[in-house]
Amino acid sequence: MTGGKPQLSAGCSLQGSLLTLAILTLISFTIFSLKSLHFPLQYSSPTPQVTAKLGAEPVAKEEKIEEKEEISEIYHSPEVFRLNYAEMEKKFKVYIYPDGDPNTYYQTPRKLTGKYASEGYFFQNIRESRFRTDDPDQANLFFIPISCHKMRGKGTSYENMTIIVQNYVESLISKYPYWNRTLGADHFFVTCHDVGVRATEGLPLLIKNSIRVVCSPSYDVGFIPHKDVALPQVLQPFALPAGGNDAENRTILGFWAGHRNSKIRVILARVWENDTELYVLNNRINRATGSLTYQKTFYTTKFCICPGGSQVNSARITDSIHYGCIPVILSNYYDLPFNDILDWRKFAVVLKEADVYQLKQILKTISDKEFLTLHKNLLKVQKHFQWNSPPIKYDAFHMVMYDLWLRHHVIKY
Hints:
By secondary structure, the chain is α/β, with parallel strands linked by helices. It is built from 15 helices and eleven strands.
């Protein structure tokens, strides 16, 4: 028995030594691993380069912060917009069907002036842009280049417009395989005049499936916000330069002048035309009062009242934006242009038609500070409601293309 004790002690001693060695090895390995992680951070670059990077970094951060502050007040999701816009510029491709005589109703715009200039500019801009592709297999969307505005200019009746549109689209369906892949869900057409919307009624799939880019995006006439796109109605060329940092010159509380061609306009004129603070006329300003009196009044007004006319839309909204006058939207069913991108309540006053009776009280509750913020933000969005040829970054054409880019993601094949 006494001979077994030393063996037991020796075994315990050996086990203890092995355990100690294992612990020391683990500690040494851990220390070595930590050092290996730190060394590249400390020594991977020569000191002068590190100094240069450190010197440049605060400027880059400052610029990034300024950029975010620049757009944070007007976009719903500034960073999402920035990233998606960049992706759109790199990847978005549109195929334009080549069919149709440009001298009749197809391919080319009627004109780039007047109330329906937006349609004309889009027809021209899409051909000038990087988004056009001649390879339909590369296309994300397909543009149906038929212009109801040109039909109207040639005196085509509404009944004949419907037949022309139907025959043209059906010819594309029978000639090409692209429509049938999605039943037209990756196709779109553009029209600014409301007659263009009605002229498509002869082809139900064009209304139900295709993307409608229209100036009259009213919820009560079948406009589908997640599918269709609101085209801003811009009356170009503008008669006078854009309004700027001129808030101190705006002494008139509110202004509207125009035809009483809708119920809301009739009520607006009846209730407020004799008011001393709201400058409301029950007709257009007589040109005999002076050159460009209507446009010049935008420069001196804080809030420009924008009720719908024969349709829910009005070029007066983009006039207001251009001249730096806060637009007051009076409508129940208007899907405002770029509404899913821009936060309209940051640069406009959006009301229901029933609010017309309390209009002055509502406008007077807006403090000077709130007005200055609205005015500052309004100047930031002016570029989005301007057409150019050729198109430039962030202008109306690119914003419409961005809306189309968003919608092409939800197409089900």
